[in-house]
dTDP-glucose 4,6-dehydratase (Mesorhizobium muleiense), 662 residues
Amino acid sequence: MTEHRPDAHFRTSLLEENDGPGTNPTDNQTMGEIIAARFSRRGFLQGSLAATAIAATVSPLALILADDARAGGGSVFSFDEVEAGVDDKHHVAAGYDADVLLRWGDPLFADSPDFDPTKQSAQAQERQFGYNNDYVGFIPIDGSAEHGLLVVNHEYTNPHLMFPGLVTIVDGEAKQAPLSKEQVDIEIAAHGGTIVEIRKVSGKWQVVRDGKLNRRITANTEMALSGPVAGHDRVKTSADPTGTKVFGSINNCAGGVTPWGTYIMAEENIHGYFSGELQEGHKEAANYKRLGIPDGSYEWAAHYDRFDIGKEPNEPNRFGWVVEVDVNDPTSVPRKRTAMGRFKHEGAESIVAKDGRVVFYQGDDERFDYVYKFVTAGKFNAEDRAANMDLLDDGTLYVAKFAEDGTLEWLPLVHGQGPLTAENGFAGQADVLIGTRLAADLLGATKMDRPEDIQPNPTTGKVYVMLTNNSKRKTEQVDAANPRAENAFGHIVEIVEDGGDFTATKGKWEIMLKCGDPSVAEVGATFSTATTANGWFGMPDNCAIDAAGRLWVSTDGQGPKATGRTDGLWAVDTEGEARATSKLFFRVPIGAELCGPLFTPDDQTAFVAVQHPADGGEDWEAFGRPSYYEDLSTRWPDFKPDMPVRPSVVAITKQGGGKIAV
Ligand code: FEO
Ligand code: CA
Ligand code: CA
Ligand code: CA
């Protein structure tokens, strides 16, 4: 899985570990590693489909029952599954096309230079599609499902895959040279987000290169801090004595599109970008320790003082927020909405509650961190877009406490309530928000197994929480909502808010699915018996609900060693007898995780983001060595010898048209 990726000497892979504060520093072999060793043996036996491998752990009767269940069907998804496995290409279910729509470096404007990886510059990158696409959203133009704005986050950069001449192999080990200032500038320009007009023509999606709303946002774009933290002393810097103006957004993981059609970029692993040391006894020490700041994985501080906390100690407080972008005006100033809290935001997917207030669900992706929701104070006005533009500056942030009896409480993070007082270091609401994790710690929130995407389902009223894994949870730390020690494969929690009201402060929850190979008894996975050897998965990360109200889950961290399969997109039944039946629809090339996913409002297109392809390959027998620019485990999607691997957004459509999986 990701956290044991052998290529971890490349620093961006280290970031993926989310191995922040509060984790166990011991090197004991975990259950995940023991199971992983089994998978690598099974991989050797010709993939995880090997009948002998399955028969070794499952009784013949169970296999017969599973065959019967499969024959009986019951899934609401209609397609022929892809075969799980590992190779250097993508694969989609038969009868579907998976067309690459946007690749790293693709021109986005009429005047953009063509992509030349040997002559890349920050100026070119600012006019081209960024690196490591993550969140994908679609904002229809004039209500069309075939014409709209695609909004895409660019989470991070992998210099060893991006830049020629950076890596040398010494005694079989990859060594990466320090980045030049020019390369750091390219990294900064490759971060952020893309807004680009797209249109379906004769059944195929095209980029509208001269779209007047096309825009690149980078780690240098001017943004405003808004809400309760704006102007606070703790966010003032030498470049911004007002504490209201920030340059850039970093590590935009998942995100969201609001009901009023703005684009949400969620800042996740911000700790990696900061280096240096706080002065002895600095008042931000506890705050930064709780977020793992500084981590120093990126080399930006070598060229820009603001990333050195010894020189600019407040700069990290200006990151870790949710950013809202008005896509209708390409000159609009993106706003960091501080009322929604500061942590390692995976995403912020939203839904309009019965009374018109809007509820945003947010995961804080770190081992033992929390599930949050934000409820706006004001109500959504469907008739007047402008009236909604500052809804995110005022509302209540809650953190979840999952009780053993299947009930759930949302605890408000409000200054003056409970322990959130000056005696405990919170002089006002700004302190509660800047130190969201510290405040949630005091409230006794439930420590989860890395909360990733959280998706409300407007059709059923249920909410799905992806918990990707937590190899550091010890047996004595197991609880009802996180029931497996050394949770290598993650699980999915389903929430039903009281009275079907998304603003409710109480609800019920249950575990919908424990992930991993159901044929290995020690894993304890709970896929339905109708789930095939291709259909199970581990490490759920992003998810989507299609227009029919069905759940789709994409994964991060599988691979030859961890599960004998690459990451991909799985269709997961949530209702009736087929509940917890999962089917593989699409899978990615070696080294990649799958982000997005996103369905157009007509369910005729699924957009998926293939992130960090070729980041890894040592544990794949067919490659078996470090993967880097000159020697890549895959050159997806171009497969040209002079073209590096390129993270890309893929549009999946049914051949001949029609709704997906119907
Ligand atoms: Fe950026 Fe939590 O994945
Ligand atoms: Ca993610
Ligand atoms: Ca999602
Ligand atoms: Ca992840």
